[in-house]
Specification:
Blueprint: E1 4-7, E2 10-13, H1 19-33, E3 38-43, E4 47-49, E5 56-63, H2 84-92, E6 95-102, H3 110-120, E7 125-131, E8 151-159, H4 167-174, H5 180-189, H6 194-202, H7 217-236, E9 245-252, E10 255-262, E11 267-274, E12 288-294, H8 307-323, E13 328-335, H9 346-357, E14 361-363, H10 366-376, H11 381-386, H12 389-407
Parallel strand pairs: 6-8, 11-13
Antiparallel strand pairs: 1-2, 3-7, 4-5, 5-6, 7-8, 9-10, 9-14, 10-13, 11-12
Helix pairs in contact: 1-2, 5-6, 5-7, 6-7, 7-8, 8-9
């Protein structure tokens, strides 16, 4: 039987796995904080650049109707261990002001300038936005970018008090001879968080001279993950392979992540199994499994499973580069019924990073490694093999080695 609870906003379900209830609670929380068309508060700092209508798109700040240290609201690197309810609460308070611009018009006016100032800022910025109407009380969800709350057209925008720019981003911004990809790599090597680089990339702060553009947030996330991953892999591919099988794991947001490092040249695959009534498999009665992979020479086409492929690959490349090793890598992800709302590609990057921070289990054989992984997963090995090019390759390689030993 469904349980209920009463609060000041009315009757709400206790079953927080229900996506419609999560959206409802987020909406009610935001309504209670808003008053009219003027929003004042501390931006994390955060910005958003839309993609619809490209090359004329909506840009604008993300401002919560609260003052103080709001950095957590815009820093997904800090969200590992938080619940879906926490993340929806963080993001639903952010009101998005929207002004339509041409993506080439990075120097076009006051709003463009202030959006760039927010992307440059090193800490939260007190801000004020005046909207054309009361915001639509929607929670916007996307498989790539983080959720955000109400939005409306924006008439005015003001940044208040002192703004402290990130010096490394400011230096990259002032270098108009360096292309955007090179700038992203330099910032990454300088220790700037990936989410911060993505905002700088999206806001048109990076790139050569007149080639600077506003880049839709969704595109910038994948572009930065892809660029940084390739940079790491250029070195990884020069290292010696690992000499044992390693398994890493983590469990969060009702996702199970099992990462296999196998001896061999660089190859990589992400296999995702979405259970019925999860984010991208609503209304189904069967598990939906998809994958994308690459061998040593990389991919020529965009990954079938989207931006999560590049986010996870970046996390894997980071550990291999620190290890000064290369490996054949397979990530198996089971998405169970508690994952009912998309929270963005950061979820993949940061949870694979979290898995790779765990103590690896080492095994002498592929069979032993897979046996350990299957003890942690519900889906059986034959199904994973049927849906994984890399696992099939590893199994075939094992058979060839066994056959050659038998001949000898």
């Amino acid at each position: 039987m469904q349980e209920y609870a009463i609060n000041r906003t009315g009757v709400v379900y206790k079953n927080m796995k229900d996506p419609s209830i999560l959206k409802y609670i987020a909406k009610m929380n935001t309504i209670s904080m808003m008053n009219g068309t003027k929003i004042e508060g501390s931006s994390p700092p955060d910005i958003f650049v839309g993609r619809f209508g490209y090359p004329k798109v909506f840009i604008g700040p993300m401002v919560p109707p609260v003052f103080g240290d709001t950095m957590l609201l815009g820093t997904p690197e800090k969200w590992v261990g938080k619940s879906i309810e926490d993340i929806i609460r963080f993001r639903s308070t952010l009101v998005r002001g929207m002004a339509k611009v041409d993506v080439k018009d990075v120097l076009g006016g006051k709003i463009q300038y202030m959006v760039e100032e927010l992307a440059l800022a090193d800490k939260y910025v007190d801000s004020s936005i005046t909207l054309t109407r009361k915001p639509m009380l929607n929670l916007t969800l996307d498989d790539n970018s983080q959720p955000y709350g109400p939005s409306a057209g924006m008439k005015e925008m003001e940044l208040q008090g002192n703004i402290y720019p990130n010096r490394k981003i400011e230096k990259a911004h002032s270098d108009t001879s360096m292309n955007a990809s090179q700038a992203a790599v330099e910032l990454y090597k300088g220790g700037i968080p990936v989410s911060k680089i993505q905002k700088a990339f999206s806001s048109g702060l990076l790139g050569t001279g007149k080639r600077r553009r506003f880049v839709p947030t969704r595109w910038s996330i994948t572009a930065v993950d892809d660029t940084l991953g390739k940079e790491n892999l250029a070195m990884v591919k020069t290292y010696e392979p690992i000499d044992s099988y390693m398994v890493f794991e983590t469990y969060s947001l009702d996702n199970r992540w099992l990462v296999l490092f196998a001896p061999g040249a660089w190859s990589y695959e992400l296999v995702e199994a979405w259970y019925p009534n999860t984010t991208w498999n609503m209304g189904s009665k069967s598990i939906d499994i998809g994958s994308s992979y690459e061998f040593f020479d990389g991919r020529k086409t965009y990954a079938e499973i989207g931006g999560c492929y590049y986010a996870a690959r970046l996390a894997v490349s980071e550990l291999l580069d620190r290890m000064k090793k290369q490996a054949t890598v397979t990530i198996l992800r089971e998405v169970h019924e508690g994952y009912t709302l998309p929270v963005g590609v950061w979820n993949v990057r940061e949870h694979v990073r979290a898995a790779l921070r765990s103590q690896a289990k080492e095994f002498a054989t592929l069979n032993d490694a897979l046996a350990y992984m299957m003890a942690k997963l519900e889906i059986r090995l034959p199904t994973w093999i049927d849906n994984s090019a890399i696992l099939r390759y590893l199994m075939r390689q094992r058979r060839l080695v066994a056959e050659s030993k038998a001949v000898l």
